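Posted in: Structural Biology > Protein-Ligand Complexes

Title: Requesting predicted complex, pyridoxal-5'-phosphate in pocket

I'd be grateful if someone could produce the 3D structure tokens for the following input. Sequence and ligand are given below.
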Amino acid sequence: MKSKSIKSDFPVADTESERMMKMHAEFVMPTYGRFPLVFSHGKGTTLWDHEGNSYLDMGGGIAVNCLGHAHPELLQAVADQSARLGHISNLYYHEGQGLLAYEIVSRIAHGKVFFCNSGAEANDGLYKLARKWGAKDGRFEILTTHNSFHGRTLAGIAATGQEKVKTGFAPLPPGFRHVAFNDLEAMRSAISPATVAILIEGIQGEGGIVPASPDYLIGLRALCHEHNLLMMMDGIQCGHYRTGHFQSFQTFLDEETLKQGFMPDAISMAKSLGGGFPMGAFWACAQVADTLSPGSHGTTYGGGPLACHVALKILEIIDRDQLGQNAMARGHQLIQGLRQLQASFPDIIRDVRGTGLMLGLVLEETSPALNHEGKSPALTLVNHLHENGMLTIPAGQSVVRFLPALNITPETVDLALEKLEASLTLLKR
Ligand SMILES: *Cc1c(COP(=O)(O)O)cnc(C)c1O
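-- Reply #1 --
Done. Output follows.
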């Protein structure tokens, strides 16, 4: 049988981008509503498409590319570790996994880490941890919040507090219930004798950049102590220095509260953890860290030499270049600029939410400027920004997210604000 070369001229199209999109239409499952952009390469906060057009990447691959594209030291780390030791399975030890676990533990608190390959998988580990821990007294139920997002596996969509991800997939794994976010009393009254854990995001990402209030976090902690529940936080999007500190609660809570020992019992991570290398992890506090005993959980790839070496290099660079501080400073610059644009375009922008480099522009849902193209307000603005050479990420109908690289420069933030202003000016006409 003759095999076709990968660079075939099928399907026929005018441009390389069009050919790629046709290829998708033919052979790739239609699970994503993709934008008609086909990228070929990137550098820092810039991406280029196949026709050579450049785009300022303010979406950061949905909070993944924390060091931007093609960071020279990450390239070197991948090359070096690939040449030394790429994969061995979890039947054996290697240097990186223990070192990375130590780095993560030392940024949170005494406890242990499990490594996996994605966010949904990290959260799945949290559900298993909670169930195993509660099994001794017959508890299994996990409470999550409305508008939360916890991943696309069956348990992930059961945990996610959004109907749209569940439709058509019944029956879902039982044992998840959702209550209003930032509503301590709703959580309190939802607790049943079967409840074993609460899971929340520090900042709801897919839900439209909605931060948990400090009082809510402190209240949940007390509630979990009172009812012997695990307080679990999904730090997949809001973690890894995006708000300045390793985890978002370390940014939200004051010194005093943190000194008094506020700490969740378990935290999931992914996205920026691998900076583009697929990777997930969850940390559990010392009291529950040995719950998942030998044989009770596992993965073939998780915490492999290559992934761990990349994640270690990322943490080293974040520490050395003080990228947590940069995320705060650049986030401040960006939010100031966004607020100024809100003042200039009050009938388009309703609010600006978020912290550090996890910011959301909340659009006026009824604004005529955003409602004449038969698309949601968020998609309308995102598309217009594409025409101006900038990438952002929609969340729901009316929020546009900024999740850029943590090493973004002041000049790039200014450029992003200029592009946004230009698009808003065009839209308003
Ligand atoms: C992205 C995300 C997930 C899912 O991560 P995947 O790597 O896509 O499985 C889970 N929770 C939150 C908060 C996320 O932002």
